């Protein structure tokens, strides 16, 4: 697949310019995005330069998918359970008299996972992979400074449909490529929570075509509401 080959070359060029000899550090959730990124890095750098990091928050119901991926690729990997870190921050917030919002509970684990990835990266001569895709970024379905962070981003310009095609071309297990993404909290799928499918979103992103006016309005609203996540931090210009 041409796009896959271009992506592999891009990763090679990135490491040649920004981390010659460094390792790719990939947070492995067991979903399609982290699986594809890890597999691309293996093809680009060799399995000896890719490190997978499993980061359950206490018990992860689909941890077997993450284990399947690292075993399939035969890459070095570590498991870092973030439960104590998450609870420690939440406990300190409560002790300070802060009423903890649901959004805080949702986003904190993602930010702690990114801290863990960078801590491990600095101790393993690494560069941290961002595993977000264009479809999710388009509607803000990523945590700023959480899974939205990283040093290099192979999938940022690729839709969910395109990521799946790359996964198939990399011969990843079908259960990883076609796994239904869940939010990890409500047992709802991403698409159930969003109110539209990724196929509809991907078609809209690539062609501008969409038949349902209400879904178009919702996608446009989410995109405009979350564009700031994809833009550089505003900064004062000293003159």
Descriptive account of the structure:
There is one protein chain. With 239 residues, the chain is an alpha/beta fold. The chain has a single domain, classed as HUPs (Rossmann fold). It is 52% helix and 7% strand. The chain has helices at 2-18, 32-45, 63-73, 83-95, 102-122, 134-138, 160-169, 174-177, 190-194, 198-207, 213-226, and strands at 23-27, 50-54, 76-79, 126-128. It has a 4-stranded parallel β-sheet, with helices on both faces. Helix 2 (32-45) crosses helix 7 and helix 4 (83-95) packs across helix 5 (102-122). It is globular and about 45 Å long. The relative contact order is 0.14. The mean pLDDT is 95. Belongs to the NAD synthetase family. Its EC number is 6.3.1.5. It catalyses: deamido-NAD(+) + NH4(+) + ATP = AMP + diphosphate + NAD(+) + H(+).
Which CATH class is shown?
Alpha Beta
* Nearest-integer average pLDDT: 95
Helices and strands, in order, run as HEHEHEHHEHHHHHH
How many structural units, i.e. domains? 1
Strand order of the largest sheet: 3-2-1-4
CATH architecture: 3-Layer(aba) Sandwich
Unreliable stretches (pLDDT < 50, length at least 5) are: none
Q: Count the DSSP helices.
A: 11
Strand content: 5-15%
Largest sheet descriptor: 4 strands, parallel
- Give the C-alpha Rg: 18 Å
CATH superfamily: HUPs
Helix vs. strand class: alpha/beta
Keywords: ATP-binding, Ligase, NAD, Nucleotide-binding
Pathway: Cofactor biosynthesis; NAD(+) biosynthesis
Domain NAD/GMP synthase: 5-226
EC number: 6.3.1.5
């Amino acid at each position: 697949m041409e796009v896959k080959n271009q992506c592999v070359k891009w990763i090679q060029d990135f490491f040649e310019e920004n981390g010659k000899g460094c390792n790719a550090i990939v947070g492995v959730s067991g979903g399609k995005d982290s699986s594809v990124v890890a597999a691309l890095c293996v093809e680009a750098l060799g399995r000896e330069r890719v490190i997978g990091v499993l980061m359950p928050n206490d018990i992860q119901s689909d941890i077997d998918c993450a284990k399947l991926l690292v075993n399939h690729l035969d890459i070095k990997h570590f498991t870092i359970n973030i439960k104590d870190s998450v609870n420690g921050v939440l406990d300190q917030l409560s002790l300070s008299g802060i009423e903890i919002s649901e959004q805080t509970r949702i986003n904190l684990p993602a930010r702690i996972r990114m801290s863990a990835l960078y801590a491990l990266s600095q101790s393993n001569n690494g560069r941290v992979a961002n595993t977000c895709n264009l479809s999710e970024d388009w509607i803000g379905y990523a945590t700023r400074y959480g899974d939205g962070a990283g040093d290099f981003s192979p999938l940022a310009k690729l839709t969910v449909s395109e990521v799946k095609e790359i996964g198939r071309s990399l011969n990843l297990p079908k259960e990883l490529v076609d796994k239904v993404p869940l939010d990890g909290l409500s047992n709802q799928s991403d698409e159930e929570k969003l109110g539209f499918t990724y196929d509809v979103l991907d078609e809209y992103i690539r062609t501008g075509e969409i038949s349902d006016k209400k879904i178009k309005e919702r996608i446009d609203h989410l995109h405009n509401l979350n564009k700031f996540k994809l833009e550089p931090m505003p900064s004062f210009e000293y003159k």
